[in-house]
Write a structure and sequence with these properties.
The complex is a heterodimer. Chain A is α/β, with parallel strands linked by helices. Chain A is built from 13 helices and 16 strands. In chain A, strand 1 and strand 2 form a beta hairpin. Chain B is mainly alpha-helical. The C terminus of chain B is likely disordered. Classes of the chains: A alpha/beta, B mainly alpha. Chains A and B meet through helix 2 and helix 4 of A and helix 6 and helix 7 of B.
Chain lengths: 364, 232
């Protein structure tokens, strides 16, 4: 547990970056600090490992004041991932990852074995081990940065805008990867970003900072989207928050009937569209009624790509609504384990479910 | 031209205390001695001011003003005060070599990306570890660059040792001049030029061997056949 108690950082030029911050970061959770530039989020993060020393208040890690003891020694026990990865250019990838274990006095063989293990965990091909950072793409460098931070298995991971310098597609895959890793490792992660979407996606809790180092709201992401504390948070959380907020609601939806056929069979049913599935009843695409309605076989040429899928076991109302909106037929395809089609959802069903969920909440 | 070839083919010029091997050995000895002393003084100072960023302006200004000192003048001054011996020319050469080594070291450390130093500190490296494990290896190309230019300057200037009755390749030039033996002077100059070229090639090889492949431009740092390493 990391506790900020009345923490203030005033720089020598008089600017106050963080003003009397009180905040508790729970163990085993991802806590995201988010806010516009100059809001003190990075300063707050860097005070945790004493890269910046507070000028007032105390920070406690598991009850111990971080200012007691040697700063360098203390930092070896906290993983640190930064924006441009900050890899050491003169060291191979393997040795970059082995940096902290080597500082801790592990033998070279043990540190390298651990580094090789981490390369696998973060999804780096073994042949990159002997390369140097300048031979890797930005996304790969960030993976190395994460592996390096995890090398000595620290309980706490500080991540300072780690994915902001990579392109959106790579960023999304790195975010998914981080969530997958976190599900396995259960670290206490403090993550700084200026991107509210990233904050809402990754955070178990999100701390929204406003200029001058004040905490505007500290809440679960669903609550943040549903009930912003004030106009600043509302403005920062931004457009589409109603839609994005659906991502934090799961609700049992009534599934509709769906007529399906397979490639090589004629289209059946009365609707304008028929869903084409494979042998394992996984969706292949849609077929318009005019193709195959006369009894001729549906071929791959007739297929219209389907929309997103709604997974009934883990899906949110957002994924159900998106499935309905993105489907060419207006019917979202609901799937269960192994991608098997189990029925359809419509946008109306989602809105009705939302209304009933709200009614239940109001009654509770 | 023939006279120069004759000089080189005369076996008498290749043996004895005035033979080419001896003079070459003396010249290399002066060069290595002056370079080592200059490096021992300039590299630690350069590392320290590069790492702390303190005193950089003062030290670099001082080093640059040293460059303005004419080496020959320093030699004559020292020889007048301390007499003939090894010390005056070596001190003069050290004074000559300090500025490029100091500037190279300081610039090398200073040029290391601050984000990398920040990352190293964030991982728990102490200041000494940052200096020796991050700033030094990353600043190495510029540090060795400073040493290379200092070495060339010393080799060229060490001829003046002969002026104060010492050996080295300068002997041929000064002795040749005094007896108007132009073949001997030319031979000395050619040997000097060859020594400078070979030494710089050796240092370039050393640079290749010491500097991490990760610091070369990405294209060039692909794994290469071992053969090239052996040449270096």
């Amino acid at each position: 547990m990391i506790e900020f108690r009345g923490v203030t950082k005033r720089f020598p030029d008089g600017t106050v970056a963080v003003d009397a911050l009180d905040l508790t970061v729970a163990d085993g959770c991802v806590t995201v600090f988010v806010g516009p530039s100059g809001c003190g989020k990075t300063t707050s993060l860097r005070m945790i490992n004493r890269m910046i020393e507070p000028t007032g208040g105390t920070i406690l890690i598991d009850g111990a004041d971080i200012m007691a003891g040697d700063a360098a020694r203390m930092r070896r026990g906290i993983g640190y991932v930064m924006q441009q990865a900050g890899l050491l250019p003169h060291r191979s990838i393997l040795d970059n990852i082995a940096t902290v274990p080597m500082l801790l006095g592990w033998s070279k063989a043990r540190a390298r074995a651990r580094a090789a293990e981490l390369m696998e965990i973060v999804g780096l091909a073994p042949e990159t081990a002997r390369r140097y950072p300048n031979q890797l793409s930005g996304g790969q460098q960030q993976r190395v940065g994460v592996a390096r931070a995890l090398a000595a298995d620290p309980p706490i991971l500080l991540m300072d805008e780690p994915f902001s310098a990579v392109d959106p597609v790579v960023r999304e895959s790195l975010q998914d990867e981080l969530l997958r890793l976190q599900a396995e490792l259960g670290k206490t992660i403090v993550f700084v970003t200026h991107d509210i979407d990233e904050a809402v996606k990754l955070g178990d809790k999100v701390a929204v900072f406003r200029q001058g180092g004040h905490l505007a709201q500290y809440d679960e992401p669903g609550h943040l989207l549903a009930r912003p504390a004030d106009d600043f948070v509302d403005g920062f959380v931004g457009r589409d928050r109603g839609y994005r907020g659906l991502g934090f609601r799961s609700h049992r939806l009534p599934l509709g009937e769906l007529t399906t056929t397979s490639l090589g069979s004629p289209a059946v049913g009365n609707g304008a569209w028929t869903l084409v599935v494979d042998d394992a009843s996984r969706p292949q695409g849609w077929c318009a009624r005019r193709d195959g309605a006369d009894g001729t076989a549906v071929t791959a040429e007739h297929l219209v790509p389907g929309g997103t899928l709604y997974d009934v076991t883990s899906g949110s109302l957002r994924s159900a609504l998106d499935a309905a909106l993105s489907s060419p037929s207006g019917q979202g395809v609901a799937v269960a384990g192994a991608g098997r089609v189990v029925g359809s959802v419509s946008a109306d069903d989602v809105l009705a479910a939302l209304a009933s969920a709200r009614a239940e909440e109001a009654a509770a | 031209m023939n006279a120069i070839v004759e000089w080189f083919t005369d076996p008498a010029n290749w043996t004895g205390p005035d033979g080419v091997p001896t003079r070459l050995g003396e010249h290399l000895f002066y060069t290595l001695l002056a370079l080592s002393i200059a490096a021992l003084i300039a590299i630690p100072i350069g590392l320290w001011i590069g790492h702390t960023g303190r005193g950089g302006f003062a030290v670099v200004s001082l080093a640059n003003s040293l460059r303005a000192l004419p080496t020959f003048g320093v030699l004559v001054l020292l020889a007048n005060s301390f007499g003939i011996g090894l010390a005056p020319p070596i001190v003069a050469l050290v004074v000559l070599a300090i500025p490029p080594v100091l500037a190279g070291t300081y610039a090398g450390v200073q040029a290391v990306d601050r984000a990398i130093v920040d990352a190293a500190r964030g991982m728990g490296m102490g200041e000494r570890e940052i200096l020796t494990r991050v700033e030094l290896p990353n600043g190495l190309p510029l540090i060795i660059g400073g040493l290379r230019s200092a070495t060339l300057q010393i080799i060229a200037t060490a001829t003046i040792a002969a002026y104060v009755a010492l050996g080295g390749l300068g002997r041929y030039i000064i002795d040749g001049l005094s007896v108007r033996d132009f073949a001997e002077m030319a031979a000395g100059s050619i040997l000097l030029a060859l020594l400078a070229i070979v030494t710089d090639l050796v240092l370039a090889g050393l640079q290749r061997a010491l500097v991490s492949p990760g610091l070369r431009p990405a294209q060039a740092s692909r794994p290469r056949p071992r053969r090239l390493r052996a040449v270096a």
